Model the fold of this input.
Amino acid sequence: MLRGEASNAVQSAPKAAKRRKRIRPPKREKVYLAVHRHDNMLYYKRLDPEAFAILTALDRGVTVDDACAEAVTASDRANIDWAAQIKEWFDNWSALGWFCHPS
Done:
């Protein structure tokens, strides 16, 4: 006959799991992305709202001048050197190969 002291299985049974604190997901926010390929690999690039506005306007066939003017006029951001910012965006987009000659 086995004695109760011979086994500690009952005594070492797991205790009820503690309730875990529920983690809230981050707040929703609008995100602007450009999805593109390079060397047959898929990439995405997060964009400022104004940069996204310029690219979508260009996709609609708007001139570069008008696309930039629309984006800057619609922006609520202040104290931005828009000429420098737009130049930086176009330098980056050109380096990524996003512009090409129309066929």
In short: The mean pLDDT is 87.
